[in-house]
Specification:
Blueprint: H1 3-34, H2 40-73, H3 82-98, H4 105-117, H5 119-123, H6 131-141, H7 147-158, H8 162-181, H9 184-196, H10 199-232, H11 235-287
Helix pairs in contact: 1-7, 1-8, 1-10, 2-6, 2-7, 2-8, 3-7, 3-10, 7-8
Length: 288
């Protein structure tokens, strides 16, 4: 789990929260109405409690997603580049959904069936006037169907790290809190800024580009490196050729040095023979 993925998860939650406010807004309003007889101080603590429960719920889902990636996907892709490619493609997929593509709407419909199944349990947490009820409400809230949550879970799956998946979903949940705890005026201001500046779409484009970079840039660099090695030869062969040339030069130097020594020895022998012949001639003339 890298810092870049955690930052992406936080921005995904923060910039995607205006979209989720349509579904979560009703739930937030229901929680607020159930706390109308509570003091303002306790109300703030109850709100913090059920958001903390929601973060725990997201973290549990991220842990399960990371375990799925570790036990199912990682053994199938060990020793190759498929984990990196799959992570890049998931980032591209999530980025496209942030641009508005309804790829996860079918999953939301499936999740809605499960959410309706939890309806009897959800009714028991109201009113939210105690901390256990607020915590239970937050834990249930984590299973509210949301395409943005499903996209974050896909990233947690391909991260192949259970603890990393839990951390990613926790940070994702942190990103959604500002919009959900803001007052009505602040919510309007945030939605206006995010919508007018198209921050959600910009983040989607950034995720698409990041996914493409994660998936394909290492492959391009590896191909370029392989081509460079084929053109210039491998370092080992260059060292081998250099070593062979050095040995050849050494052999040539030894042969030349030996020939020079033999020539010098031959010349010295010739000089000695000449001196002996001169001495013999002088002795013969003296004798005559």
């Amino acid at each position: 789990m890298t810092t870049a993925l955690l930052v992406a998860a936080f921005l995904m939650g923060f910039l995607g929260s205006p979209h989720c406010l349509g579904m979560c807004g009703g739930l937030v309003a229901a929680f607020s109405l159930s706390m109308k007889d509570v003091s303002p101080a306790k109300r703030r603590r109850l709100i913090a409690t059920y958001h903390f429960g929601r973060l725990i719920s997201y973290s549990i889902l991220g842990l399960i997603a990371g375990l799925i990636g570790t036990t199912v996907l990682e053994p199938l892709m060990r020793g190759n580049s498929m984990p990196r490619i799959l992570l890049g493609l998931v980032l591209v997929f999530v980025g496209v959904t942030m641009l508005g593509a309804p790829f996860l709407s079918r999953l939301e419909r499936v999740g809605m069936r499960f959410w309706q199944y939890l309806s009897p349990i959800r009714q028991k947490v109201f009113p939210l006037n105690t901390y256990p009820r607020a915590m239970a409400a937050g834990l249930l809230w984590g299973y509210l169907p949301c395409g943005l949550v499903y996209g974050a879970l896909l990233i947690a799956v391909v991260a192949h790290n259970p603890l990393g998946g839990a951390a990613l979903m926790f940070v994702f949940g942190l990103g959604t809190i500002p919009m959900l705890v803001a007052t009505h005026e602040t919510v309007g201001w945030l939605r206006d800024k995010i919508g007018r500046l198209r921050l959600r779409q910009i983040n989607g484009v950034i995720m698409i580009l990041s996914g493409l970079a994660v998936a394909f840039v290492p492959m391009v660099m590896q191909n370029r490196h392989s081509g460079a090695q084929m053109n210039h030869g491998s370092p080992s062969s260059m060292m081998s050729n250099s070593h062979s040339q050095h040995n050849t030069n050494d052999m040539s130097y030894d042969m030349t040095d030996t020939a020079d020594k033999d020539s010098m020895s031959h010349n010295m022998t010739g000089v000695d023979n000449t001196d002996n012949m001169s001495n013999s001639l002088e002795q013969h003339q003296t004798a005559e």
